[in-house]
Amino acid sequence: MAMVVNRFDVYLINLDPTVGSEIQKTRPCVIISPDEMNRHIHTFIVAPMTTAGKEYPTRITCEFKEKKGHIVLDQIRTIDKKRLIKKLGTLDSDTQLKVISVLQRLFAF
């Protein structure tokens, strides 16, 4: 049976190799690609999470699995499904709405 990956799921993902200022290492990432895309192609759009870093308008402060940190929407990227290691959970609905709001502002024309 195929793995089901949904928008706002949080997965442990291997982001290496990286270049320059890209967030690196294996870390939690939020799936932000739409479910229709997640079901039909072998890549996902993700936003890394970090417990370090500064606050920016494109970063959402959140708590996940009792750790405080940020969802780094200024570092979104497309990854192959082979980078997924394991599912860690799903964002709560309030944080999901914050992600949507920031993405709408980020890509508004």
Q: What labels describe this entry?
A:
single chain; 109 residues; alpha+beta; SH3 type barrels; 7-stranded antiparallel β-sheet; 2 helices; 7 strands; 39% strand
How would you explain this protein's 3D organization?
The chain contains two helices and seven strands, in the order ββαβββββα. The chain has a single domain, classed as SH3 type barrels, CATH 2.30.30. It is globular. The protein is 18% helix and 39% strand. The model has no long low-confidence stretch (mean pLDDT 94). It is of the alpha+beta class. Strands 1, 2, 3, 4, 5, 6 and 7 form a seven-stranded antiparallel β-sheet that branches.
Largest sheet: 7 strands, antiparallel
CATH topology: SH3 type barrels
Quaternary state of this entry equals: single chain
- Envelope shape: globular
CATH architecture: Roll
Determine and state the CATH class.
Mainly Beta
% residues in beta strands: 35-45%
Question: Rg to the nearest angstrom?
Answer: 13 Å
The residue ranges in which pLDDT falls below 50 over 5 or more consecutive positions are none
Protein structure class: alpha+beta
How are helices and strands ordered from N to C? EEHEEEEEH
Instruction: Tell how many strands the DSSP assignment holds.
Output: 7
Q: Terminal Cα separation, in Å?
A: 40 Å
Mean pLDDT: 94
Helix share bin: 10-25%
